[in-house]
Every structure is written in structure tokens, then in C-alpha cells.
């Protein structure tokens, strides 16, 4: 009973007394009065007592049963509705639990055109390749001469076939797997299209998508069989260096206390040979051998020559210690070390024992909690239930609809994006991430990564959604599958989160003299966290009520550090060198970049669009006017100053790459045949957020990863130009096969099916704030309506309006106050 309820009970009792018509005796009246007083006191005290624990307006003490929200996991064809346990005793009579109806109406991924491959489909494709003799094993590979599967992902159907089906004019495309096969017996890598998948009357086939020998064996991605062989091969050499390691690195023993890092590529410039740099790093975590410490990389490194499959011809060479070398063999290095012919380093005694405290991401218990930090922060949840629907991988929300897709190589993708029934995008997809490091280290200088080579969404370190960190506890979690070559098995991971967010700000607002009006900013989020070695990336797609789409790429995780040689005579300043700052006792942070390549295939109303540059300039009045009418002889007299800002409209006729200009450019995709009410071509503008630019000029990275040179490129769409890069080119940079400039061959892009290849990124100079964890560095781009609508597109939503005369008053739909249901989710349970 609350205070309000107790008071109502008192007045009801008083009313009953007044309605009595007979005249009771004085004793009865006294009894009634005493009884009423007694009941009033009981009600008052009881109401106060209960209200202290129920009504937050009375007491704001921490509620140990603080309600949260519900969770659901869509399991790649099976929806697991996690039981929700509600503690009704912790919720007062005025409020109950918020209603929650699952937004998931259908869970079979195989029923949608663009859905990621499922486990079952991967196994079906693998068994067919095994039965066809294309692969030699479906067990854990043990020998490089075997033929086995590296990766699998959905082979997206041809665009015309997909559109014919989606628009109701054709058959539903069948599903196929794209499978990469490492063929040790043939010394190459092949890609196959395998299918159709699922239960179908059409017989399965495997179609070779590359020629035999086209992808050289030595340009393949790294995999566990090769790494294990190199690790074993290095053991005798590192045993010879046992004394050096123990004396230099705080008593470490190999292999107990260190791990080998081979991912300091690329292994080859030509793709026809294979040499890998290796370094050693301390084992710092102690939770799982898969957790690597790329912060504490030690100054001992070398190279391994390991082409082909004949491991008897492999050898180690080029040994370096503290950047001193090269020494042909480990014995040569050890002899120089014992003779005192080289400089030495000594880590402080006990340094290794402090590593977990230094870098493990746990709260620093030596410092007090911040004031009020023991209270739960603000939360958002659904007071009337979710407003989005998920059917397989099709999502609908507030007149938006789209298909979620993706694969382990390229990462997340969205297809068939529509707003208010009109198609905006056919494809919006992450394509690759490029990184280039610079540091003063034999093992670390000029490290180049193209993350599609390792697998963006399901490589050696598959990422998973961390509930209530990446994703609110009420969000819908979708699972995707990836193929792990180490075990030749398919695995599920909870990789995609969908939820509606409250921006807690205005999408639009105005407060006038006689009225106020606004619309609260709420938007739908598709969040995809991925883990690639030491770095964590989160890709987010935000859909807004007015037709905008924000696309974010965020980075966190651990930096890849380099050893800080504090006694190196080259660097008189002991806080920094030419490549970065000192960030720990023995570590510096190498400068590097993160460049994200996206495929943006607009289909504004239909697939034939055009590209324009709207240039924002400044100059004399006559110059501005003549951009539209060259025959004007003189500037009008009514201009006060003879300099103005103006726009110069430039239709782009042929394929082009666009880099950052001194003046502002608006990159606009339009449908020239579709006009808004005012006769203007309907379009969308591509607006990069603050983004880094490529500073290299002659570096070999500019061949294989040439997309990093440009902020946008526009090309005619072709089925054989599906992706921005080739996953093999980073291992054959002198002979790339799938680079962006290859797509730009002067073809017309006017009123045609075109693709924009958008690149955004950031330059990273690691500082002490990146230790132990990099905190949310981000970039991205906005896709914004540009004369696409006749007016602001969000005025079909309930909004807040209030006028001073009270004639017009609008608000969002009412709802009853309710409590967020508690979550039940545990990744490691």
C-alpha cells in the first residue's frame, strides 16, 4: 500500500460513516471512531513503510533487485528466447513490468536472399567438395600437402536476378557458397561456387571461379598448419638463445613464457616466394592461449624462408637483437652476445610478474571509485515493447526495411535498403580495413595489414556481442557462422545486435515566441563488433526518422606496440622518437592508420543513377553568376561586396577517384529522371565525417590497397567487380589483381548502375591514454537525403507541439510507467 492508497482508504471510511441514516448509540459511535482512528494509523504507518521500499519519490536507496531488460538470441535458424525472470515483489502496485513482445517473427536465415551462410549450409558445401575429391580432408589438417577449406561465405546472387525476385518479376535466386580451398597438392588457392544449398531438386555443382595456378600458393593467407610448422622449426634456434632471453628478459624460458608472432607481414612482395618476419612476445594474460599480448613485443626477431610445401627446405635467418644484426644464424647471434660485441638490454627484475596488472582490463582497485559511481547510470528500454520486426534477416522499423548480411572475409553488409517503400541502396557493405605501421624496429617496421586477408567477421579471433556493452540488454542478437580452417568446422557466434536507441536529444526543434515544437531523436541501430587479433572494431549503421543513415567504424582494444630501447644513442629525447611516444617502461606506440573501405551501391528509385560534385567555392560576384549563365557581362549592382560564396555544380561523366580538396565538395548521387515537387533531381549526399588522409606517395601499399588514396571513387557496377580489394593482394603487392584503380577505366557513369567506393579512416598516434586500452576512436560517413523529399520526411511521426493559446497541443503516445525486466544472459555460462 502506498501513501496515496492509504489516504484514499481513510476518506472512503469517512464517507461510509457519513452515509449512515440510523442513529447509533454513543458506545457504537465511540467504537466506530476509535476503529477509524486505529485503521487510519495502521494505513498511514504501513503506507510509509512500504513506500520507502517501493516508491522512488520517497527513498532513493539502491534497489538490489533493480530491474533490467529481456534478451533474445537469434541462433542462425533457431531462436532462443532466454527465459525472463521477473521479481514482482520488487515492483510497486503503481507500476509493473514493461510489456515485451518478441520482434522476431521468423528465424530461418536460409529463407532470405542475402542472409549469411548457416552452419548447415557450410557443412553441406564442405561435404560436397570432399565427395567430389576437391578437398582431401574434413578433419583437422596436419600437412601442407593436403587440400582443405580456408573460408566460406555467401556467394551473393547477381544483382539483376536479385532485383527481379525482390520486385516480383522473377524466381527466387538459389543460395550458393563461395569457398576458398588451399591446394597444397597443386600449389595454389582456388575459389569455388558451390550449390545450390538447402533441400532442392537441383543437383549440386562446384564451379571454379579462378583458374588453376592463378592464385599462387605462396600468396595465400596464413593458417595454423603453416604457423605450427614454423614454430617447431624455430625451437632449436631459440633453444640456442635461451641464455640471452633469460638474462635480457627477466628470466623468461622458451616456450613456457613467450609466444611467437608471425603476423608481421607481408610475407612476399611478388606472391611467388614466402619469407616471414617473426618476433617474440611475453605471455601476459594467462586466461587463454588465444589471447595475445602485442604490447610486450621483445627486441628479438628474425625471418623464416618457407615457400611451398617442402618444409625440409625451410630455414631461419636474419636474426636481430635490439636492432643489431643481421646474424645469419642463432649461433652467430649468441656468440656475439657472449663476447660482449653488442649492446644488451636488461628488463627490470619482476617486470614479467607485473604484466597482468599493467594491461589486463580490470578496475584499478588502488584508486577509490568516483563519487556516485556505485549507482547504475542512465538506461533506455521499451516502455511499450519493441517497435522493430526481424523476419529471418529482414528488418523493418518506422518505414525503413533492409536485409542484414555479411561474411567472415569482408564483414557486415546491408542489402535492399528501402525507406517509405522506395529503394535507397542495393548494397551497403564493409569491404576491407588497411593498416600501415611505422616504427624503429626490425620486426615491426612497415607492418602492413589488410584485414580481409585474415577475416573481418570470423577469423582467428571471432568477435562476439558483449551484452549491455555493445548492445542493450533488450536488443536482439543475431548469430552468424564462420569456417575455421584449423578444425575444418563451422561455428556460430553472436555477432549482430539490433535495437532502437533514444538519442535523448532533438531530431528537430524550434521554440518560437508563441509556440514550441520538436521531435525526439530516436533511431534504429545495427551494431556489429568484430575482433581482429589485438584490435576490436565495431561497425554501426544508424537509421533515422528523416531518411539519414549514419555509418560508423570504431576502434578499441590493444595497440600493437614496439620495444622502447631507452639506451639507443639515436634518440637523445627519452620520451619519443621519430615514430611515436614512449607509453610504458619498455614500450613505444608506433604511428599507424586505420582506413576503412565501404561499398555503397545506391539505387535511388531505380538502379540507373548519376554522380555529381557540388563544389562550395568563394570568389567575385561575376564569377559566381557565370557558373550558371556564362553570357552575363557584368555583376549586378545590388551586391554589397564583390566576393561571395557560391556553388559550382559539376556532373561527373566518367569513372573517377576523388580525393580531399582545399574547398568543400558535396558528393551527390541523383536519379536525373525523378524530380521532387520543386523540379529538383532527387538524390542523396555522401558526407564523410572527420577522416584521415593517406600521406604515402611511393609505398608499395598504394598498389594493393590503393583505395586508401581516395575518399570516394565512382565506377560503373560490374558483377566481376564485387569487392574493393583482393584478399590475396597484400601478399603480392608488386603484382596486385583486385585493386581499385583497375575498376576506373573511363567508362560512362551517366544514368547507369554505379557504385561508390567510400574510404574513411583515422591516423593513430598512440599515447599513454591508449594503455592499456584504446578508447573509442571513430570515423564514418553520413548518407543524407539531398532534395530526395518534398519536405522534412519526419512529419508523419507523433511529435511535441504546444502553442501559447492552447489551441494546438500534440505529444507522443502515452504510456504507463513500467519497470525494465531483468536480463538473463551470460557469454561464458
From TrEMBL:
Cofactor list: Cu cation
A GO term from the CC aspect: plasma membrane
Keywords, ordered alphabetically: Copper, Membrane, Metal-binding, Oxidoreductase, TPQ, Transmembrane, Transmembrane helix
Membrane-crossing residue ranges in chain numbering: 29-54
PTM remark: Topaquinone (TPQ) is generated by copper-dependent autoxidation of a specific tyrosyl residue.
SUPFAM superfamilies: Amine oxidase catalytic domain, Amine oxidase N-terminal region
Post-translational modification 2',4',5'-topaquinone, affected residues: 535
UniProt-annotated catalytic positions: 451, 535
Cofactor: binding comment: Contains 1 topaquinone per subunit.
Gene Ontology MF annotations: copper ion binding; primary methylamine oxidase activity; quinone binding
Stored Gene3D superfamilies: 3.10.450.40, Copper amine oxidase, catalytic domain
InterPro entries: Cu_Am_Ox_Cu-bd (IPR049947), Cu_amine_oxidase (IPR000269), Cu_amine_oxidase_C (IPR015798), Cu_amine_oxidase_C_sf (IPR036460), Cu_amine_oxidase_N-reg (IPR016182)
Family: Belongs to the copper/topaquinone oxidase family.
Protein name, UniProt field: Amine oxidase
Organism: Dreissena polymorpha
Amino acid at each position: 500500500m502506498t501513501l496515496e492508497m492509504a489516504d484514499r482508504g481513510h476518506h472512503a471510511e469517512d464517507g461510509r460513516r457519513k452515509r449512515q441514516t440510523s442513529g447509533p448509540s454513543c458506545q457504537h459511535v465511540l467504537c466506530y471512531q476509535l476503529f477509524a482512528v486505529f485503521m487510519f494509523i495502521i494505513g498511514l504507518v504501513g503506507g510509509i513503510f512500504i513506500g520507502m521500499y517501493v516508491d522512488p519519490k520517497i527513498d532513493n536507496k539502491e534497489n538490489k533487485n533493480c530491474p533490467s531488460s529481456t534478451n533474445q538470441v537469434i541462433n542462425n535458424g533457431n531462436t532462443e528466447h532466454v527465459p525472463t525472470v521477473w521479481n514482482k515483489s520488487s515492483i510497486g502496485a503503481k507500476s509493473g513490468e514493461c510489456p515485451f513482445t518478441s520482434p522476431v517473427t521468423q528465424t530461418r536465415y536460409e529463407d532470405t536472399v542475402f542472409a549469411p551462410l548457416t552452419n548447415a549450409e557450410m557443412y553441406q558445401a564442405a561435404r560436397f567438395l570432399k565427395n567430389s575429391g576437391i578437398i582431401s580432408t574434413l578433419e583437422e589438417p596436419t600437412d601442407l600437402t593436403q587440400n582443405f577449406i580456408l573460408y566460406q561465405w555467401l556467394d551473393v546472387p547477381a544483382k539483376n536476378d536479385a532485383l527481379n525476385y525482390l520486385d516480383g518479376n522473377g524466381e527466387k535466386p538459389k543460395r550458393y557458397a563461395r569457398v576458398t580451398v588451399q591446394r597444397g597438392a597443386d600449389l595454389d588457392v582456388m575459389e569455388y561456387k558451390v550449390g545450390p544449398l538447402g533441400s532442392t531438386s537441383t543437383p549440386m555443382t562446384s564451379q571454379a571461379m579462378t583458374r588453376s595456378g592463378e592464385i599462387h600458393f605462396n600468396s595465400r593467407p596464413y593458417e595454423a598448419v603453416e604457423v605450427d610448422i614454423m614454430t617447431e622449426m624455430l625451437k632449436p634456434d631459440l633453444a640456442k638463445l635461451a641464455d640471452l632471453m633469460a638474462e635480457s628478459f627477466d628470466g623468461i624460458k622458451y616456450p613456457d613464457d613467450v609466444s611467437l608472432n608471425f603476423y608481421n607481414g607481408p610475407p612476399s612482395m611478388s606472391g611467388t616466394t614466402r619469407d616471414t618476419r617473426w618476433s617474440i612476445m611475453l605471455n601476459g594474460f594467462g586466461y587463454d592461449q588465444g589471447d595475445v599480448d602485442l604490447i610486450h613485443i621483445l627486441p628479438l626477431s628474425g625471418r623464416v624462408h618457407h615457400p611451398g610445401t617442402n618444409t625440409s627446405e625451410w630455414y631461419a635467418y636474419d636474426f636481430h637483437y635490439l636492432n643489431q644484426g643481421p646474424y645469419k644464424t642463432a649461433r652467430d647471434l649468441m656468440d656475439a652476445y657472449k663476447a660482449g660485441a653488442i649492446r644488451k638490454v636488461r628488463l627490470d627484475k619482476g617486470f614479467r610478474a607485473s604484466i597482468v596488472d599493467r594491461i589486463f582490463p580490470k578496475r584499478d582497485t588502488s584508486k577509490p571509485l568516483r563519487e556516485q559511481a556505485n549507482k547504475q547510470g542512465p538506461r533506455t528500454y521499451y516502455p511499450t515493447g519493441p517497435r522493430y520486426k526481424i523476419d529471418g534477416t529482414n528488418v523493418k522499423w518506422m518505414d525503413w526495411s533492409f536485409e542484414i548480411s555479411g561474411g567472415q572475409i569482408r564483414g557486415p553488409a546491408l542489402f535492399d535498403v528501402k525507406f517509405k517503400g522506395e529503394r535507397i541502396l542495393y548494397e551497403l557493405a564493409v569491404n576491407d580495413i588497411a593498416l600501415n605501421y611505422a616504427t624503429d624496429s626490425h620486426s615491426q617496421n612497415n607492418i602492413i595489414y589488410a584485414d580481409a586477408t585474415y577475416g573481418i567477421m570470423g577469423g582467428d579471433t571471432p568477435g562476439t556481442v558483449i551484452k549491455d556493452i555493445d548492445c542493450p540488454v533488450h536488443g536482439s542478437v543475431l548469430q552468424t557462422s564462420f569456417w575455421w580452417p584449423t578444425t575444418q568446422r563451422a561455428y556460430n557466434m553472436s555477432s549482430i545486435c539490433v535495437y532502437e536507441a533514444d538519442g535523448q536529444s532533438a531530431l528537430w526543434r524550434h521554440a518560437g515566441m508563441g509556440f514550441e515544437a520538436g521531435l525526439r531523436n530516436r533511431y534504429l541501430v545495427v551494431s556489429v563488433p568484430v575482433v581482429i587479433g589485438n584490435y576490436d572494431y565495431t561497425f554501426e549503421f544508424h537509421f533515422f526518422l528523416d531518411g539519414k543513415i549514419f555509418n560508423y567504424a570504431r576502434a578499441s582494444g590493444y595497440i600493437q606496440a614496439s620495444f622502447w630501447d631507452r639506451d639507443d644513442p639515436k634518440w637523445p629525447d627519452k620520451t619519443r622518437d621519430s615514430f611515436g611516444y614512449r607509453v610504458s617502461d619498455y614500450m613505444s606506440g608506433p604511428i599507424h592508420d586505420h582506413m576503412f573501405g565501404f561499398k555503397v551501391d545506391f539505387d535511388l528509385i531505380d538502379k540507373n543513377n548519376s554522380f555529381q560534385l557540388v563544389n562550395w567555392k568563394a570568389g567575385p560576384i561575376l564569377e559566381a553568376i557565370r557558373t550558371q549563365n556564362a553570357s552575363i557581362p557584368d555583376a549586378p549592382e545590388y551586391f554589397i561586396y564583390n566576393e561571395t560564396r557560391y556553388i559550382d555544380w559539376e556532373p561527373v561523366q566518367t569513372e573517377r577517384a576523388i580525393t580531399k580538396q582545399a574547398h568543400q565538395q558535396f558528393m551527390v548521387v541523383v536519379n536525373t529522371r525523378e524530380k521532387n515537387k520543386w523540379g529538383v533531381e532527387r538524390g542523396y549526399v555522401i558526407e564523410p565525417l572527420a577522416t584521415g588522409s593517406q600521406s604515402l606517395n611511393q609505398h608499395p601499399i598504394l598498389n594493393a590497397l590503393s583505395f586508401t588514396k581516395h575518399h570516394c571513387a565512382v565506377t560503373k557496377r560490374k558483377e566481376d567487380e564485387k569487392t574493393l580489394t583482393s584478399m590475396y593482394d597484400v601478399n603480392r603487392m608488386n603484382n596486385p589483381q583486385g585493386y581499385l584503380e583497375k575498376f576506373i577505366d573511363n567508362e560512362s557513369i551517366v544514368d547507369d548502375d554505379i557504385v561508390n567506393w567510400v574510404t574513411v579512416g583515422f591516423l593513430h598516434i598512440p599515447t599513454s591514454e591508449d594503455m592499456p586500452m584504446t578508447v573509442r576512436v571513430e570515423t564514418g560517413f553520413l548518407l543524407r537525403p539531398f532534395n530526395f523529399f518534398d519536405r522534412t520526411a519526419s512529419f508523419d511521426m507523433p511529435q511535441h507541439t504546444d502553442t501559447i493559446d492552447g489551441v494546438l497541443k500534440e505529444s507522443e503516445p502515452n504510456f504507463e510507467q513500467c519497470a525494465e525486466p531483468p536480463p538473463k544472459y551470460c557469454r561464458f555460462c
